[in-house]
């Protein structure tokens, strides 16, 4: 947790503390962030394809992997809104194939409306005939990342890093069912409680309320 985020949480509890005092308490509480690995430098000025300009413009999908205490694989499908940073879903299972990806995305479209673009890598679950057919029927355009260029799906890569650091690396799941419950609780906290520096320290839900938008007209065809 960053000092600014700690200050936000204290303010929510009715404690108005100055920056220096908040920083001192933050250090005393041992909330220092772990050192991050140096990032690969990327040439500046490179245009980002399909930059979102409102909610429901671009959804980003990816997979994150973990294991249970007994060594069972956990595969998590993460879906976020590129603009609001809201995590729309984290589907947890041992194996997630294209059919299940379609089921998750169909449920999200029924709740939020269809996005204009779907951003993902070129993994087999995202470029299969079933999901490409579903995307075409839903009237959604694709924005696939080039191989070896994860920064083109930067918002989801950033989310996945936070998901790992703040949830997966801190939990010890005894089963996939337990993992599903804990991960869903973390997702709710991420959307409604955790302040985000990229959103001027608002939560995704607060940011979405301040930036309302109407659902896009793209709908699933029978």
Largest sheet: 5 strands, mixed
Number of helices: 7
Order of helices and strands: HHEEEHEHEHHH
- Tell me, what's the shape? globular
What value does the Rg take, in angstroms?
A: 19 Å
What is the number of strand segments? 5
Average pLDDT score: 80
In terms of per-residue confidence, which ranges show pLDDT below 50 for 5 or more consecutive residues? Answer: 37-49, 217-222
* Estimated share of beta-strand residues: 15-25%
What can you see in these coordinates?
There is one protein chain. The protein has 222 residues and is of the alpha/beta class. The protein is 37% helix and 15% strand. The protein has helices at 3-12, 19-28, 98-112, 129-137, 154-168, 176-192, 204-210, and strands spanning 58-67, 73-81, 87-93, 117-120, 141-144. The chain has a five-stranded mixed β-sheet with strand order 3-2-1-4-5, with helices on both faces. Strand 4, helix 4 and strand 5 form a beta-alpha-beta unit. Helix 1 (3-12) packs across helix 2 (19-28). The radius of gyration is 19 Å and the shape is globular. Residues 37-49 and 217-222 have low confidence and may be disordered.
Question: Could you name the key traits of this structure?
Answer:
single chain; 222 residues; alpha/beta; five-stranded mixed β-sheet; 7 helices; 37% helix; globular; disordered C terminus
